[in-house]
UniProtKB/TrEMBL annotation, chain A:
SUPFAM superfamilies: Translin. Residues 1-22 are annotated as: Disordered. InterPro entries: Translin_C, Translin_fam, Translin_N, Translin_sf. Pfam families: Translin. Belongs to the translin family. This is Translin. PANTHER family: TRANSLIN AND TRANSLIN ASSOCIATED PROTEIN X (PTHR10741). Its main location: cytoplasm. Gene3D superfamilies: Translin, domain 1, Translin, domain 2. One of its GO terms (molecular function) is sequence-specific DNA binding. Residues 12-22 have a biased composition (Polar residues).
Automatic annotation (TrEMBL), chain B:
One of its GO terms (molecular function) is single-stranded DNA binding. Keywords: Cytoplasm, DNA-binding, Nucleus, RNA-binding. InterPro entries: Translin (IPR033956), Translin_C (IPR016069), Translin_fam (IPR002848), Translin_N (IPR016068), Translin_sf (IPR036081). The keyword Cytoplasm applies. SUPFAM superfamilies: Translin. One of its GO terms (biological process) is RNA metabolic process. One of its GO terms (cellular component) is nucleus. Belongs to the translin family. It holds the Pfam family Translin. It comes from Kwoniella dejecticola CBS 10117. This is Translin. Gene3D superfamilies: Translin, domain 1, Translin, domain 2.
Amino acid sequence: MADVDTLMPSEAGSSSSTLSRKQHLMSTFESYRSELDTDNERRERLIITSRSITQLSKKLIFHLHRNATSLSPQLKEKCLREGRSKEREIWTLFKKIRDELDSIGNGGDEAKEGYWRWNRQVSPGLEEYIEGLSFLYYLEHQSLIPLSEVQKTLSDEEGEALVVVTPEDYILGMSDLTGELMRYATNALSTGDHNTPLEVCEFVRTVKSHFDGIPPHMLYKLSKKQEETTRSLEKIERGMSLAQLSSLAFHLCYALRLRLIEFADKPEVLAMMAKRALEDTAEKEDKGRDD
Amino acid sequence: MSSGKRSAEILQSIPSFYLLNFAGCTLIVSDADSSIFLVHHRRSSPSNSRTMTHAHLEMSSRAQTVTETLSSVIELLENDQNLKKQIRESIEPIDDLSRTATTELNKLHSAPFSQHQQICQNAIDIITKTQPLWNDVAKLIPEHEFYRHQFALGPTMRNLTTSIVLARFILHDDLTPAHTTSTILGLQNDSTTILQLSSEDYLQGVIGAVNELPRLSINAVTSQNFDLPIKISSFVNDIFASYSLLNLRNDALRRKFDSLKYDLKRCEDVVYDLTLRGLTKPRE
């Protein structure tokens, strides 16, 4: 007990200075708290906006898929027009992000640094938007949207960038585009359009061969996406070989239809022709094997 | 099995069909849903390859544009990557000095208390040598793009903060404020305005210093220094109380903060052991 008693005064003596240090620290950390709180709130707002951008971009892509393969030029034009207005709707959300960042430090240097500081919160939405925009552009121009065009689209009326699009964002976006084009090509195929898959295939091949040249350490995320692109390409190629066959089938259908009309009342003749054709094929197969 | 026999199987599965042999192809046309099966196919006919050539010409000019667009973007990407590489390289000599300072501070655990001041002063001196090196880093970073490259600079800044806070705790028994830390690093000069010690990095760096203290507390007891553990315990207590004020998210800082609890407990345990044995009495 005696020990504890002698300890008490020394503890009390040192705690007076401790108290002042503690008080000082507490007030410092209170300002850190308000700084972190402000940052967290801003982060939340940016994430919410970025998510809305993702959602709307997905809707834009679905909208394009639904109607872009329409065979009627009027419908197709209407679809692209609506696509553009959807794109402008997303644009206003990027404007919102710019306004949010501009409010930091009353638009000084801090605001200009803001984009890079909050880039991670914004980039998921941006990626999806670039995918949608490039798909829309492809349908409008049958070509690849240049990076400068993406940046121009994402600028305000004075040409000031709303957000900065880096080569990295762009390349990753284009890698995503190939997946959408694969779906587009498949849809086009089902409407009997054989040229579109052919064009898409050529396009995706060009994009892929360029991206294959980028070393993986340079853009790690791309190497994963490239695998997806390769799969997409294979799907289009498989679809395309089908397309060529069905294009041939289209020509054949003409002859076919004629004979169907010709022998409509004589099914036994048609059956005979079918049998002969089968035997022919089998014979040719066998001969081919013997050679 | 020949494709002919395979076709026969397909035919059996279709209730009603028509079949045609034409231009090297065998077509089976189902009557029910007018779907077409193509069961045999020779090389494409000449007329077909002619239309292909025309399409190919048109496509190759398009491919040309795509090639140009992509080549220029890839060049931009390479520039970006080169800059990142340069920045990483410019950080390396700073990292070397930072490690030297950490090595110096490691001596605290084994050296007698009388040498502690000297060791800490040495560490601070080593760290001040990074000041001119930060100028080189600052020169590389484009205006307003600090946060684009922060991921490369942050770890170094956090480690240096840890060393500064630890050394200056031994020297002054106080927490070094962020501004002082930044000044010691030479980040407050005109030539380094682009560089910032962010609150996040500072707050993480401070916890790094606290993580070092339980060990120091135990080693102080081993070397018969019974005052240091009490000093440490009270400091860690204050730091913990301060961090408790913050509303943390589930991020790296939060995880670091969680480690503080254990540090505090270990430091308090040492004081408890000393008190129990009556070793905390002031000496006459």
